[in-house]
């Protein structure tokens, strides 16, 4: 079963799975189901298309129950559905925190809980959680997203130990920058949207430079959704897949740097490499420190 199958990496995975000999359940939110038909993906006796919002308990349970009744359960679960918020810590909202964690962390954990009893009974299963290079390192203005991926990484690592006695293999796939337009789907909180559009805002430079930086890296990346999808399919078929799979070259480099560099040097090096960092925190035009104003 694959979540978030109607766009981006999920869509590339869906196409490969449809061309394989697997029985496949492709899921997406109800509002995105029409994309399957637009992309030439149709139901058959081997391919199911099911609406699934991973944050809704009734939809999670309905899909897993049907799979258990008709196909004896889910043997391979790929948790791909995700959302990415762009906001500095000061601009977090409760609604943003809840959605970010519900989609990227709680939803996958709930689906895993539903799939595990059947996998344990068969003494076989594959669980693939799509993480991110942001599960290795945090980027400014993307703290909410990184928090959700760090949580996913921690729980998945614990799961790796817990289910090995039943021959259930668990892998975290860590893509870095992928050549796509997915950065356009980033969600802003109300405050972060206002700040990103207002040059006088104290955080404007961070939003402005980071957004340009991410867009540039994604457009220049040689990694495509298709290439990452192929690596995931290969991982499913591996008898002994790794716990963590850096799925793009930049993810591999960041993982390597994190391992070999002293932590203080690692963080200082990344800070110095941030785009336009020298102008971050500068005074907005026309704003004067109180200490420099004259008292008359």
Task: Give a verbal description of the structure.
About 50% of the residues lie in helices and about 10% in strands. It has about 300 residues and is of the alpha/beta class. It has a domain at about 10-80 and about 95-180 and about 225-250: NAD(P)-binding Rossmann-like Domain (Rossmann fold), CATH 3.40.50.720. The strands form three sheets. The protein has a four-stranded parallel sheet with strand order 3-5-6-8, with helices on both faces. Strands 1-2 form a two-stranded parallel ribbon. The protein has a two-stranded parallel sheet with strand order 4-7. The longest helix is centred in the middle third of the chain and has 29 residues, at about 95-120. It is globular and about 60 Å long. Residues about 285-295 have low confidence and may be disordered.
- How are the strands of the biggest sheet laid out side by side? 3-5-6-8
Biggest β-sheet strands, sense, barrel: 4 strands, parallel
User: Count of helical segments?
Assistant: 10
Determine the CATH topology of the domain at 8-82 and 94-182 and 223-250.
Rossmann fold
Strand content: 5-15%
| Euclidean distance between termini CA atoms | 72 Å
**Structural class of the secondary structure composition?**
alpha/beta
Indicate the radius of gyration in whole angstroms: 21 Å
What is the helical fraction, as a range of percent? 40-55%
Question: Shape from CA axes?
Answer: globular
As residue ranges, the low-confidence spans are 284-296
- Proper CATH architecture of the domain at 8-82 and 94-182 and 223-250: 3-Layer(aba) Sandwich
| The CATH H-level homologous superfamily of the domain at 8-82 and 94-182 and 223-250 | NAD(P)-binding Rossmann-like Domain
Written as H for each helix and E for each strand, in order along the chain, the element string is HEHEHEEHEHEEHHHEHH
Mean pLDDT, nearest integer? 93
Number of strands: 8
For this structure, the quaternary state is single chain
The first-level CATH class of the domain at 8-82 and 94-182 and 223-250 is given as Alpha Beta
